[in-house]
Write a structure and sequence with these properties.
Layout lengths: L10 E4 L6 E9 L8 H4 L1 E9 L5 E10 H16 L17 E2 L6 E10 L2 E8 L12 E8 H16 L5
Antiparallel strand pairs: 1-2, 2-3, 3-4, 5-6, 6-7, 7-8
Helix pairs in contact: 2-3
Length: 168
């Protein structure tokens, strides 16, 4: 598919005040469908974009999700919207937690770090190897407080995007 078809396919999770955001967009498969190993055929190229309240930004395109992992994101977000996702403020790569959504490639991970009230939550996005503050695995995290309605819309948009990238 032509690259211009994907330019508006990002799912943006933004703070209620609009100063901080995390965008994620599948931009294609890493390898062609002709790849011999089925697990290689299902790696997605994903664009990540972060904007901090102080104006700093970071963006990368990397094969950081499999189609199975990408499919799990909308369910995890839906649990966060319902308030059933456990709170986690830290991420330990040596001790995986069900409260943190992490992936085989550690480009990013997600956790709910607070439920301030019935209509909002604070999502923590852990980032690896980004030039915002640290060049380490999950060396940087960004907190985004947003409404549950906004996160529900992002989860729905992500589900729609995954229809374009089925397992092969």
């Amino acid at each position: 598919m032509p690259a211009d078809l994907w330019k508006d396919c990002d799912v943006r999770i933004a703070s209620t005040d609009g100063t901080t955001s995390f965008s994620v967009a599948p931009v294609g498969y890493q390898f062609s469908a002709a790849q011999k190993l089925s697990e290689d055929r299902n790696w997605l190229q994903v664009e990540l974009h972060v904007v901090l309240a102080d104006g700093r930004q970071w963006e990368v395109v990397d094969p950081c999700l499999t189609t199975a992992e990408a499919t799990s994101v909308s369910g995890w977000l839906a649990e966060a919207v319902r308030g059933t996702q456990p709170v986690a403020t830290e991420l330990d790569i040596d001790e995986p937690s069900a409260a943190v959504l992490s992936f085989l490639e550690p480009n990013f991970a997600l956790a709910v770090c607070a439920y301030p009230d019935a209509s909002t939550l604070t999502l923590r996005v852990f980032l690896s190897y980004c030039d915002l503050a640290s060049d380490a695995i999950y060396g940087t995290s960004v907190d985004i407080t947003l409404t549950r309605t906004a996160l529900a819309a992002a989860a729905a948009e992500w589900r729609e995007q995954m229809v374009l990238f089925p397992p092969r």
